[in-house]
Amino acid sequence: MSLTPPSPDSSPSFAPQSQIDSFIRFVSQSSRMLILAGAGLSASAGVPTFRGNGGFWRGHKAADISNIACFEELPALSWVYHAERRNIVIHASPGEGHKVLAEVTRKWDLRGRRKGKGGKGKSAGKVGETGSDRRGTLMLTQNIDGLSEKANHPQDRLYPLHGSLLDIKCSNRSCDYYDKDNFQDPICPALQVKDPKASFASRPKDTETGQSSTDELVSKTTKLIINESTSNKTKDKATTKHEKRVNPLEELLASFAPAVTDEMRAEPTPSIDQLPHCPKCTSLLRPAVVWFGESLSQPQFDEINAWIEEEPKLDLMLVVGTMAEVMPAARFVTIAKSRGARLCFVNMDGGHTGDVVVREKDWVFVGDAAVVLPVIFEGILLN
Question: Which residues lie closer than 8 Å to 197 by C-beta, 6 or more apart?
Answer without folding.
Answer: 46, 48, 88
